[in-house]
């Protein structure tokens, strides 16, 4: 059984159909990268999985937990399926450590000392332990995004969704963030990643999902997708990326 299963997902905005009928699975330890043109439904898909967008129909299940939003509440589901956004979503009035600990203490009712010990270990791992008392305004974009990743990891999720996490970063800061994600992948973290970083996608993915107009057009392992795509739409997309 897959770790995460999406069956017959449909999402509309009024008369506009964003995702007509999508099926996707993610296995434990697998990294699936979702590619496609802007507006094709990639971010909408992630937001539906995490309950941030209300789906019109379909079933999203996590192994050993059940259907999200039905067997467990979306609040509980977001502790199992974490999400990292392109805009960091850090609270400006809280320092780094308090931003990270807000979820573990408030949502999971964990002991602060225990959670802070884990947070410090994670901060050290991404090279930011010395910034634990800094405020978001004192951090670079790359540092903020690494803090956002640590905040998600500190909730001990089964799956992490990453939505264009380098889109708002200066080119020099992209590598420091992607290196953290690559390390997580190598350690077996289960991830669904939306990105426009093609080189990174080829390196990190176990499987590539190519979407257009809310549907999966092509699905293959990275080497085949990038060097021998099977559909004309995927070929057209990759030609547009090779400027």
UniProtKB/TrEMBL annotation:
Keywords: Amino-acid transport, ATP-binding, Coiled coil, Nucleotide-binding, Transport. Residues 105-132 form a coiled coil. It is found in: Cell inner membrane. Residues 4-238 form the ABC transporter domain. One of its GO terms (molecular function) is ATP binding. One of its GO terms (cellular component) is plasma membrane. It is a peripheral membrane protein. CDD domains: ABC_HisP_GlnQ. PANTHER family: AMINO ACID IMPORT ATP-BINDING PROTEIN (PTHR43166), PHOSPHONATES IMPORT ATP-BINDING PROTEIN PHNC (PTHR43166:SF4). Belongs to the ABC transporter superfamily. This is Amino acid ABC transporter ATP-binding protein. It comes from Ursidibacter maritimus.
